[in-house]
Design brief:
By secondary structure, the protein is an alpha+beta fold. The chain is built from 15 helices and 9 strands. 45% of the residues lie in helices and 10% in strands.
């Protein structure tokens, strides 16, 4: 005999038991009500049977005790229908939260792109996602307003300029648009990965809400010509000068150069192997003689695991170690105080493109995509294009 759970009166008459009372909604789809004690408000559950395999799946829907009892059946049915639709679109039966989706993505990155990128992304989740309300939301229940609220909070979060200072002396500034984009990209990647795995069958909750800010990656670093680069290097401490020289010889990211060990340099062939950088794959650069001699000098008498370019105390470089000395050297050289290590990379790439090197080769040397090189440096080819067109004149 069919059991009705649609009304408060009908549910109140049910005897307490462990197994839910089910009411059929459509073929293979049931809504259940579980009443463990005579005085409990009860909880709701959905049950679905796969028409092809006959396998049954269940999903707890909650108690809906935040709404009047007379409205709970309709609310539970709506939630059940959403789950049935999710399954019908090929979604998994597993319930995954935003936090779990982020953890799953970290594992994926660690296995496909390496430990360095996994640690960076995991740190972003730790700062901006894991302790937020959003983290506990199941992907199938995630809404655009929830994601938009998270984004607004992210955009308003200040950056501590001097994190090692006492709390009373700490200064803050607004977060840059590019930083906001990077943190949103990390969350978007995790949600898209979960979507691909079937934990969510639509990306409507985040597709627009996490859309990157346009033109956020405008030119952040000034171009330094060769004379200015030499002046900066001349004013820097010896170990910093060596690091800057390395950046002026090869268009690497500062972090990639800092991560190089002696083993990455093949002295016999004059080849530098860059480990898994931002692109997630190794690349080999055949060095010109002057660059090969520079790195040869720094590799001499060192063990393979030693930093290729080390600090004065022999330790590896990191951004906190080079920031202040470079700023001080820039002031001494009468250059803008905002000059960073990244400006050396920007300057070398600018020179490569301006000299006529094709964008594909430039991208390969720099460890980035052709699209990114074209976006930021393509305009440098305009004069060469004009000169080429001028040569066509009869």
């Amino acid at each position: 005999m069919a059991t009705s759970i649609a009304t408060v009166t009908a549910r109140d008459k049910l005897k307490a038991r462990h197994d839910p009372y089910y009411q059929k909604l459509t073929q293979g789809q049931y809504l259940g009500f579980q009443k463990l004690t005579a005085t409990s408000v009860g909880t709701w559950v959905a049950r679905s049977r796969d028409p092809e395999t006959g396998k049954q799946s269940k999903r707890g829907l909650g108690a809906f005790d935040d709404i009047p009892p007379s409205q709970r059946f309709d609310a539970a049915r709506k939630a059940a229908d959403e789950w049935f639709s999710h399954l019908g679109r090929g979604g998994t039966t597993e319930s995954v939260t935003v936090k779990a989706a982020c953890a799953n993505y970290v594992k994926h990155v660690r296995g496909t792109k390496g430990e360095k990128q996994a640690v960076d992304i995991e740190a972003r989740y730790s700062r901006w996602v894991n302790d937020e309300k959003l983290a506990a939301v199941e992907l199938q229940k995630l809404t655009r307003p929830q994601v938009e609220a998270w984004r607004r909070k992210l955009e308003k979060a200040p950056v501590v300029v001097n994190p090692h200072a006492d709390a009373k002396d700490q200064r803050t500034r607004e977060r840059s648009k590019s930083s906001i984009n990077r943190d949103m990209t990390a969350l978007r990647a995790a949600l898209n990965h979960a979507h691909d795995a079937g934990h969510a069958t639509t990306d409507m909750a985040w597709r627009v809400a996490l859309r990157p800010i346009k033109n956020a990656d405008g030119q952040r670093d000034a171009y330094l010509d060769r004379a200015q680069r030499r002046a900066l290097i001349a004013q820097a401490p010896v170990d910093v000068a060596q690091f800057l020289t390395g950046l002026s010889l090869v268009p690497l990211r500062p972090g990639a150069l800092a991560g190089l060990t002696v083993a990455h340099f093949d002295r016999r062939l004059g080849v530098l192997t860059i480990g898994k950088d931002k692109t997630g794959r190794d690349r080999r650069i055949k060095l010109p003689e002057v660059a090969a001699e520079f790195f040869e000098g720094h590799a001499k008498d060192k063990l393979p695991a030693a930093p290729l370019l080390a600090r004065a105390d022999g330790s590896a470089w990191n951004k906190d170690a080079w920031k202040k000395p470079i700023r001080a050297a820039a002031l001494k050289a009468k250059l803008p105080a905002a000059i960073t290590a990244y400006a050396m990379r920007h300057s070398t790439i600018t020179d490569l493109v301006s000299s006529g090197l094709d964008l594909l080769t430039t991208a390969q040397l720099s460890g980035t995509s052709v699209a990114m090189i074209e976006k930021h440096y393509g305009h440098l080819q305009s004069q060469r294009a004009a000169d080429a067109l001028a040569a066509l004149a009869l």
